[in-house]
């Protein structure tokens, strides 16, 4: 081995320490500290600005109150079922309130959470300074019987969480899932007012279809509707009644579940009625 090779072999390789990870970590820590300080400074500044703005706003309201910009009155239209106690609690307003500080959007939202109110229109008026509220209350279209209790149902099939005492005959709906599917049925059965006024019960069968009972809950005419195409089916029933007077006949069941048939069941009748309808137990229409 030559002397030059010995020198090369005897040389030690010296590796410099890795400094970049520590520098990177140090920079990240410094940046985090700077960011935190900046955030604290910004927050303090914003709070100061917010407080100044709040103080200025309050001063404006105080001065405008002295000039007569306080609430004079609240006018409410179309209130029937909603109590004034409920409305006052939702509004939370008094006559010392500055008319300019009242948030009409917030009032509208609060009113529409009340059980009987469907929609509310809230407007602000000046000289006199009034809040004008126009209500549209929910209409009860049926009572849902479940668990021995009766719950009022509106035209959208929604349960109204309020006490209700009927002042006139009203349709009863029964069955699991009846309220959720009631709106579609209601839109269909309201097409003929004469038939609709005779409906006493709508029974949602097995979560699939409706049976509608006319005239009497115990012994009335039961109309069996199909699972689908109930509007088309109901239109057919209306047409049959107009052309053949099907509801003038003494029937207990009108089965409309078959697409090309109307199957009827005849109730008890005198001999003259029986002779007249002896061939109508099953009719193709």
Number of H/I helices:
8
Compute the gyration radius: what is it?
Answer: 38 Å
CATH uppermost class of the largest domain: Alpha Beta
DSSP summary, beta strand count: 12
Folded structure, characterized:
This protein has 285 residues and is of the alpha/beta class. It has helices at residues 3-10, 20-66, 84-91, 104-111, 178-189, 193-196, 230-244, 271-276; strands at residues 73-77, 117-125, 130-137, 140-146, 149-154, 171-174, 199-205, 209-214, 221-224, 251-255, 262-266, 282-283. The strands form two sheets. It has a nine-stranded mixed β-sheet, covered by helices on one side. A three-stranded mixed β-sheet has the order 1-3-2. It starts with a helix and ends with a strand. Residues 3-15 and 279-285 have low confidence and may be disordered.
Quick overview:
By secondary structure, this protein is of the alpha/beta class. The protein is 38% helix and 24% strand.
List the helices and strands and how they pair.
Layout: H1 3-10, H2 20-66, E1 73-77, H3 84-91, H4 104-111, E2 117-125, E3 130-137, E4 140-146, E5 149-154, E6 171-174, H5 178-189, H6 193-196, E7 199-205, E8 209-214, E9 221-224, H7 230-244, E10 251-255, E11 262-266, H8 271-276, E12 282-283
Parallel strand pairs: 1-3, 4-6, 6-7, 9-10
Antiparallel strand pairs: 2-3, 4-5, 7-8, 8-9, 10-11, 11-12
